[in-house]
Amino acid sequence: MIRLIIIDVDGVLTDGTVLVGEAGEPTKRFHVHDGLGLKLAMQAGKIVALMTSAGSEGLLRRAEQLGIERVYQYVPEKGRAYEELRDELGLRDEEICYIGDDLIDLAPMTRAGLPVAVANAVDEVKAVARFVTTRPGGQGAVREVVERILNEEGVWGGIVARLAGGEAAPVNRSVDTP
């Protein structure tokens, strides 16, 4: 059973494009399907961690919006960071999924029990992955991985049924509707 999902950010949680604003600040685009998938994974008891060799305030804000507490930025050696996180949580490699797309992800991917490459990953990463998503990074690939994990564990159907069961959405009475 997968207990921890570690996700590279640029090229996996985003499409890999880095936009630079007028003041020189980098901005990133995140896909809402990935966001909901991560929330559902956490509701299902999974620990989610984001691990990137870069970093940004935007990433911290997005992680906060999703309730992700483990964000590792400016990580030069992902293999070492992976091992430290694994040991801190008392997990075995078999309980960890790592989703990557580029060469810097190879070290943790070769250790993780479930190494996953996104569709637009480099060939070397695809070669060590147990599976390659059909969707590219930043376009629902992370959601695809979450669905697959939760399906294999037999809980995805229950999640979908619960959501389809019509949990009452809060009514925003401050907005007039036509």
Main attributes of the structure:
single chain; 178 residues; alpha/beta; six-stranded parallel beta sheet; 40% helix; 16% strand; globular; disordered C terminus
Task: Describe the protein's architecture and organization.
This protein has 178 residues and is an alpha/beta fold. 40% of the residues lie in helices and 16% in strands. The strands form two sheets. A six-stranded parallel sheet has the order 5-4-1-6-7-8. Strands 2-3 form a two-stranded antiparallel ribbon. A hairpin with a 5-residue loop joins strand 2 and strand 3. The C terminus is likely disordered.
Provide the structure class.
alpha/beta
SSE string, helices as H and strands as E: EHEEHEHEHEHEHEHH
**Can you count the beta strands?**
8
Number of helices: 8
Strand content: 15-25%
Indicate the percent of residues in helices: 40-55%
Rg over CA atoms, rounded to whole Å, is: 17 Å
| Termini separation | 48 Å
Shape: globular
Q: What ranges have pLDDT less than 50 throughout 5 or more consecutive residues?
A: 168-178
What is the mean pLDDT? 91
